[in-house]
Specification:
The N terminus is likely disordered. The chain contains 18 helices and 31 strands. 48% of the residues are buried. The protein folds into two domains: 225 residues, no CATH class; 354 residues, Glycosidases (TIM Barrel, Alpha-Beta Barrel), CATH 3.20.20.80. α9 packs parallel to α11, α14 packs parallel to α16 and α16 packs parallel to α17. By secondary structure, it is of the alpha+beta class.
C-alpha cells in the first residue's frame, strides 16, 4: 500500500485563490509536480480516472495478490508522466499488464516490481498479433518516425533521458524526426517529443489501444470495458460507547468504552474542506476525529458561462468521493452575471435577482437550480452527475462582514463597488458609497431566490441561512450584534404574500454561524440565535411551519490570532479552546459544529487530540436537554476580564452526563471531584480526560487534580485578557453517578 496521504488536494487551493487550471489528459509535461488531474478520484488503494460522464472510467491501484501498479505510478510521477489509465488490468503470458495514455505497465506474476513494457517493440515485432505491417504503416501514425536501425537521438531528448533514469525509456528505436514543430524519438518503452523547448511523453498507449483492442493475445476486449466508480466502505472513526469492559482509550475502534446508551458516530460533528488532504488522507483524518460531514465550496465565479457540463469543475469535492455527507457552500459572482474571477468584482451581487427565480436572466436562480439538480440524491445514493449527493446548501458566507479589508469579506453591493473601485476597500467611504441596508436587502433577495430554485430542483433539500459572524462594531454596532439577522426577520415580516411565506417555510431551514471567538462569546452568540429561532413565529407574525425543527450549526469554529491586540495562540491553546468552545456551543443550544478547517487539526498535534477528545466525550449529548447547564452562567466580552475562577458545563445524554471543567483564574487552582453512585445496581462508568486526550478510568469517590491557569494572556485596554481558559478537563460518567466539586462553582458571578 503506498503512502498516498502525503498528496495534498491542490485543486481546493487553486479554486480558493480564484484560479481554475485546465485539465490536460495524456500529453503531460514530463517531470511536473505530481498532482492528480481535477477529475480524478483518490481512493484508499490508488485513484480512479472517470470519463466524461463522471461515473465510468478506469482505476489504477495496488491489488492484493496482484500487481502494484499504483505504487509504481505514484512514485514515478503518475499522471504527469504516463497520463491516465485507459484499460483495466489483464493477464497474458505470465504477466499482468495495464495500459496508460503514454505507456504500457507490466509486472511478472512470478514476483518482482512493476515497470514499463516495450510497447514499441510489441507494436512492431510482437507476435502473435495479426498479419505483419510494414514499419511505415505501423509507425507513421500521428507523425511519429519510422522504426530504424542504428538510431540517433535528438540532443535535448538524450539529455532529458540521461537525467531521468527512473523513466525506463529503454533503448532508442528511431531516428529523430521533426514535424509540425515537434521533434520526436521512439524508444523501446515510450515515445518522447520536444515541443516548444519542453520534453514530454507521446500518446503511444492510446495508439497501442487503437491497434490492438480486442486482440486476445495483447489487449482483450474485457480490458477496455469501463469500470463504474463506487464509494467503498469507510470506517466511521471515533466511537464513544459500548459494553462495559471494552479497553479504555479505544479511539477509532468499532466500539468505544464511555458511558451512555448510544453507539457509533454523532452526525453533529463536521469540518470545512475535508477534501484538502486528498480523498484517502481526508477520509482517514475525518475518521480519526470522528467527523461525519464536510462543508465544501462551489465557486460560481470560476464559470465562464453557465454550462451544466462545467458545474463539476467548480467544486472542491470533485476528487473527494466519500461516504460522508457534503454540505455545499455557493458563493462569488462570475463575470457573465456581473461579477468576475477576482476580487473585488466577485463580491458583487449577481444581476437578475429581481426577476423570478426561474427566469433565464436570473443568473443565480439558474445556477442554483442546476447545481442542486446535479447533486440531488437518487436511489442507491448516487447522483445524476456521479458526484457526491448533497442535501444541504448555504447560499453565500459571512455576508455581514462589511469591509473588504476584513478577513472573510464576501458580499458587496453597488455602493460598495463604487467605494472599492475608488479606494481599494481601505480608505474612508464617501457619500453613497456604503449602504448597509442595500447590501442586506440584496442578500435577503438572494436567499429567497436560492430557496425557490433549490426546492424546485430538490424538494427535500435544506437551505442553511448564509453563515453569520460576530462582526466588528464598524459593521454592526447594535445592542445584540445581530443586525443582519434582525434585518432578515424584518424582511420576512414585510412579505405581502403571507400564504407563500408560510408555504416556503420562511425561505430557509437552518442557521449557520462562523465564530472564531473566545468560548464564552460562543455561548453568548449561540444563545441569542437559539432564542431568536424559538421566537421566530412571533417575530415574523406567522406560525413557523418548522418550529422546533430548525438547527443552529457552527459552520466554522476555530481560534485565530489577533495581532492587533497581541493575541497569539499555539496548538495547545487550540486544544483547550476546542473542548471549551464545543461545550459552550452545546450548552447554549447549538445542534452541530464544524472544525475550521480540517487540516488545522492534525491527528498527531495537540490541536487534533483536543478536537478528538471533544468529539469522543461530547458525542450524543442531547441537544437542548432541559438539564444542561453552565456554572457560573457567564457570557460576553467582559468575561475575558471580569471573571476569575473555575467554569463547569454539564451536558446530559442517554444514560450519561459529560462535564467540562476549566480554569479562568490567572493561577493554578486545586480542585476535588467527588463522584457518588446513586444506584448500587448500576455500573458506575467514569472516564476523565485532559485537553491532550490523556485518559483515566475512575471509581466512585474522591479525585483531586490541579487546574492550570490560562496559557496565553495579553494586555489590552489596560487589562489582562485571557480568551481561553486553562486546565481543561472533560469527564463522562453514568447517570447513576453524581459529581460535586470543591470549591463549589457558583451559579452566577458578580462583575
Amino acid at each position: 500500500m503506498p503512502a498516498i496521504n502525503r498528496r495534498r488536494f491542490l485543486r481546493a487551493t487553486a479554486l480558493a485563490a480564484g484560479g481554475l487550471a485546465p485539465a490536460v489528459m495524456g500529453r503531460i509535461v514530463l517531470g511536473a509536480q505530481q498532482t492528480l488531474p481535477p477529475n480524478a478520484i483518490e481512493t484508499d488503494d490508488g485513484a480512479f480516472f472517470p470519463s466524461s460522464d463522471g461515473i465510468t472510467g478506469f482505476h489504477v491501484r495496488d491489488l492484493p495478490g496482484g500487481p502494484s501498479f499504483w505504487s509504481f505510478y505514484d512514485a514515478a510521477g503518475g499522471h504527469s508522466w504516463y497520463g491516465p489509465p485507459i484499460s483495466r488490468v489483464w493477464e497474458y503470458a505470465g504477466n499482468w499488464y495495464q495500459l496508460f495514455a503514454c505507456a504500457l505497465f507490466a509486472q511478472s506474476k512470478q514476483g518482482g516490481g512493476s515497470g514499463l513494457a516495450p510497447i514499441v517493440d510489441l507494436i512492431v515485432d510482437g507476435p502473435p498479433v495479426s498479419s505483419r505491417f510494414s514499419n511505415a504503416t505501423k509507425l507513421e501514425f500521428d507523425g511519429w518516425p519510422r522504426y530504424g536501425s542504428g538510431p540517433r537521438v535528438y540532443g535535448p531528448i538524450q539529455a532529458f533521458v540521461a537525467s531521468r533514469p527512473a523513466l525506463q525509456t529503454g533503448a532508442a528505436r528511431s531516428d529523430p524526426r521533426s514535424a509540425s514543430g515537434h521533434v520526436r524519438n521512439l524508444f523501446a518503452n515510450v515515445g518522447l517529443e520536444q515541443v516548444g523547448g519542453i520534453v514530454r511523453l507521446g500518446v503511444l498507449g492510446q495508439r497501442y489501444r487503437a491497434y490492438f483492442e480486442g486482440q486476445p493475445s495483447r489487449l482483450p476486449a474485457t480490458a477496455t470495458a469501463p469500470e463504474r466508480f463506487s464509494v467503498g466502505a469507510q470506517p466511521e472513526g471515533v466511537a464513544v460507547s459500548a459494553p462495559v469492559g471494552t479497553p479504555v482509550g479505544a479511539l477509532g475502534s468499532a466500539s468505544g468504552d464511555l458511558a451512555g446508551l448510544t453507539e457509533g458516530l454523532d452526525r453533529g460533528f463536521g469540518c470545512t474542506l475535508g477534501s484538502e488532504p486528498g480523498r484517502a488522507g481526508g477520509v482517514a483524518h475525518m475518521n480519526g476525529l470522528g467527523l461525519s460531514w464536510s462543508r465544501e465550496q462551489f465557486l460560481w465565479n470560476t464559470l465562464k458561462g453557465y454550462s451544466p457540463a462545467a458545474l463539476p469543475t467548480i467544486a472542491t469535492d470533485r476528487n473527494f468521493r466519500v461516504a460522508k455527507e457534503i454540505v455545499g457552500l455557493l458563493q462569488f459572482t462570475p463575470a457573465y452575471a456581473g461579477g468576475g474571477l477576482y476580487a473585488p468584482a466577485k463580491y458583487n451581487p449577481p444581476q437578475g435577482l429581481h426577476l423570478p427565480a426561474g427566469h433565464s436572466l436570473n443568473h443565480y436562480g439558474r445556477f442554483v437550480h442546476g447545481i442542486v439538480e446535479s447533486r440531488k440524491p437518487l436511489a442507491g445514493g448516487s447522483t445524476a452527475s456521479g458526484l457526491n449527493p448533497i442535501s444541504r446548501w448555504i447560499p453565500w458566507n459571512e455576508p455581514d462582514i462589511c469591509l473588504p479589508r476584513m478577513p472573510g469579506y464576501a458580499w458587496g453591493g453597488v455602493p460598495h463597488a463604487r467605494w472599492v473601485n475608488r479606494t481599494g476597500g481601505s480608505g474612508s467611504a464617501g457619500a453613497g458609497e456604503l449602504d448597509e441596508a442595500g447590501r442586506r436587502q440584496r442578500l435577503y433577495r438572494l436567499v429567497q431566490v436560492a430557496y425557490d430554485s433549490m426546492t424546485a430542483a430538490d424538494p427535500t433539500a435544506r437551505l442553511i441561512f448564509p453563515s453569520l459572524s460576530l462582526v466588528d462594531t464598524t459593521c454592526d454596532n447594535s445592542d445584540r450584534r445581530m443586525a443582519f439577522w434582525d434585518g432578515w426577520i424584518a424582511f420576512l415580516a414585510g412579505q405581502r404574500n403571507r400564504q407563500a411565506l408560510v408555504r416556503s417555510s420562511f425561505f430557509f431551514h437552518d442557521v449557520s454561524l462562523t465564530l472564531h471567538k473566545e468560548p464564552e462569546r460562543v455561548a453568548e452568540i449561540v444563545g441569542r440565535y437559539r432564542t431568536a429561532l424559538d421566537n421566530l413565529s412571533a417575530a415574523v407574525g406567522e406560525q413557523d411551519p418548522l418550529a422546533e425543527q430548525r438547527k443552529i450549526i457552527l459552520m466554522e469554529l476555530g481560534l485565530q490570532d489577533d495581532p492587533g491586540l497581541g493575541a497569539y495562540f499555539d496548538d495547545e491553546d487550540v486544544a483547550h479552546f476546542i473542548i471549551q468552545a464545543v461545550a459552550n456551543a452545546f450548552v447554549a443550544g447549538a445542534d452541530e459544529v464544524a472544525f475550521h478547517k480540517l487540516v488545522d487539526y492534525p491527528l498527531s498535534s495537540l490541536a487534533g487530540k483536543g478536537a478528538r477528545t471533544a468529539v469522543r466525550y461530547m458525542s450524543h449529548v442531547t441537544r437542548q436537554h432541559p438539564d444542561r447547564g453552565k456554572w457560573p452562567n457567564i457570557s460576553g466580552e467582559r468575561v475575558a476580564n471580569a471573571y476569575f475562577g473555575p467554569v463547569r458545563i454539564d451536558l446530559p445524554g442517554p444514560g450519561f452526563v459529560t462535564s467540562v471543567i476549566y480554569n479562568r483564574e490567572r493561577q493554578p487552582l486545586d480542585m476535588t471531584l467527588t463522584f457518588n453512585s446513586t444506584d448500587s445496581a448500576a455500573d458506575p462508568v467514569i472516564h476523565l480526560a485532559d485537553h491532550a486526550g490523556r485518559e483515566r478510568k475512575l471509581e466512585p469517590g474522591v479525585f483531586r487534580l490541579t487546574l492550570q491557569p490560562p496559557r496565553s494572556t495579553f494586555n489590552a485596554y489596560g487589562k489582562n485578557w485571557a480568551w481561553v481558559g486553562g486546565g481543561t478537563h472533560v469527564v463522562r460518567y453514568s447517570d447513576s453517578v453524581e459529581l460535586s466539586t470543591d470549591p463549589v462553582i457558583p451559579e452566577t458571578a458578580d462583575f
